[in-house]
Amino acid sequence: MEISFSTLETPQGEVISAAIRDVSDRRAFERRLAYQATHDQLTDLPNRELFTQRLGRLLHGRLSVDPPVAVCLLDLDHFKYLNDSRGHRVGDSLVVAVSARIGRAVGSHFMARVGGDEFGLLVEGLAGPDEVLAFAERLLTSFDQPFAVDGIDCYITASIGVAFGDASDRVEVVLSNADAAVNRAKRNGRARVELFDEALTLEAAHRIATEAELHLALERGEFHLVYQPVIELDGARWIGTEALLRWNHPEHGEVPPVEFIPIAEDTGLIVPIGRWVLEQSCAQLARWHHDHPELAELSISVNVSSRQLEHDQFVNDVARILRETGLPPGHVVLEITESFFIRDIQAAVRRLHALKDLGIRLAIDDFGTGFSSLFSLSRLPVDIVKIDKAFIDGLGSGYDAVVTAVVTLGVAFDLDVVAEGIETEAQRDRLVDLGCRFAQGYYFSVPLDPGSVPGLVDRGRPTAGATPTGRGW
Ligand code: C2E
Ligand code: CA
Ligand code: CA
Hints:
eight-stranded mixed β-barrel, 23% strand, binds ligand C2E, alpha/beta
């Protein structure tokens, strides 16, 4: 009810009038607006806004917060992929199903949907990190059973990051700490819980700085490529080179790829950077072919990230680069890590066939570190398998059988097998005994500047007695 009074001077004296209005509708409308502004329409859970407000009140509404509030961020693994491949309607139904199930597991703790596939929990009253960890791990077990979506059983996992906050902490800091912890859970293989710690603060600051610098590195010309020979063991012929990216940071000098490639992948920057790598390395090979007829059989191997392969333009880019450089497509090898195949094998196979149609060759990189089954090997249109260095390091102490198995597989599926990271003569000899035909490693040569490649191939190095000719891949 809204009542308004007004006074009126009349010759008979003052008159007071009152108007009374029913404002129920307006109030209901306002309440609905307020609710909508703070809740997610799809799941009806509180949204990020309310989550942040609530955390602020928990941290700063009292003099002390003891035990600290645990902020858990739960992020669905590979959700974007499912959303893209099965459609948004299916994605939405899955989010609803997941929110209902974790809602039950969460009990009375505050829960919100803080992003498309991200839920936030405010957990109060748990004594310490161990208890919170146990709580978060129990949450993950709710993902053991499939979610029925659209009549299909859908398996999905989640990663959880946990950060603690007390009265002295700013809300944004606690949230970004929890974020850093989720990111670490993703990097460490997903479907797991990570607690925030100080190392992560430094790491997070470092990542943010690196991200900003990576943005500029391409236009500032801070990248260059080095080339590592791929050797045919029988006769020690140099038959190919792998292009490896180097970043010459203006202050820190050379930054190793393991430090910046994951960041470039997370931010999507790997797409333009990877395109540059492909352009540069193919142009380089075309120059070698042109200037040194004896190198005509040399091939180039280029590392390609999943993010690049998933990009719609990728196949077009490869086709354009082949056209522009005039390279025989069979001399271009794209190296793809196992993890690309395991996400959605059917979609991956379609993409790879489109690339194969261009005439290029495909290699599985770091084989043995992921989950490729023999079955997937037989279905994938790949030409080359690269055995990870970890197995080569283990030669003589149990990994011989693994290498033998991969070599046997190679024969069965008509794949060339390359052993990576050979550092000693003993390893080389052992590989020859086991029937492995191709290899790469410091024993033969470290990655080289492009200028020194032709001379070395000409002189039959890097291994004594090598001849530059012979069958390329
Ligand atoms: P990778 O594809 O497995 O490359 C092989 C790595 O092993 C290279 O390290 C190489 O220098 C190193 N290596 C070769 N022989 C030996 C050896 O005998 N002993 C030892 N200890 N190491 C050896 P690098 O250049 O640091 O590259 C690391 C990773 O970064 C690569 O692993 C690849 O996954 C990624 N990478 C490099 N360049 C690119 C690129 O242009 N694009 C993408 N997407 N990833 C790249
Ligand atoms: Ca590689
Ligand atoms: Ca590798």
